[in-house]
Amino acid sequence: MKTxxxxxxxxxxxxxxxATIGFKIISALNPELPEVxxxxxxxxxxxxxxxxxxxxxxxxxxxxPFLGALFKNEPKKTAIKKRRDVxxxxxxxQGIIKSGKSKHQIFIVNIDDVQYLLKKxxxxxxxxxxxxxxxxxxxxxxxxxxxxxxxx
Length: 152
What we know:
The chain has 152 residues and is an alpha+beta fold. The chain has one helix at residues 2-29; strands at residues 91-98, 105-111, 114-118, 123-124, 127-132, 136-141, 144-149. It contains one helix and seven strands; from the N terminus they run αβββββββ. The protein has a four-stranded antiparallel β-sheet with strand order 4-5-6-7, with no helix packed on it. Strands 1-2-3 form a three-stranded antiparallel β-sheet, with no helix packed on it.
């Protein structure tokens, strides 16, 4: 009796499995179609075409992707600026004053017939004393430099 119960139970399970498979096959062959709503299309006759040009530029890479070494940057070419002629003031170099013990030097410079005592780096009337020795002085005026020899 035990074996008959097991057989009937297995027979019911097999029948249920085949019923499920059959139901899935039949429902796949006769699917329910969804309702399709048709949309109204309106034709536009006054349309504009966007013709934007897609531009790009290629940038140089500073690093080798495989080795990781840095490339040397190429020096940028700079345009040479043309110098504008500056109308210089009337400048003359008169001489130098220095004391025996100290290293300070004071230069006697006439700018537009006014005498000034200048040290290196000092500015008077927008004229800067850049360098000087017993023979000449170098002055800067409006970002241009000029030498003046000692007037005897």
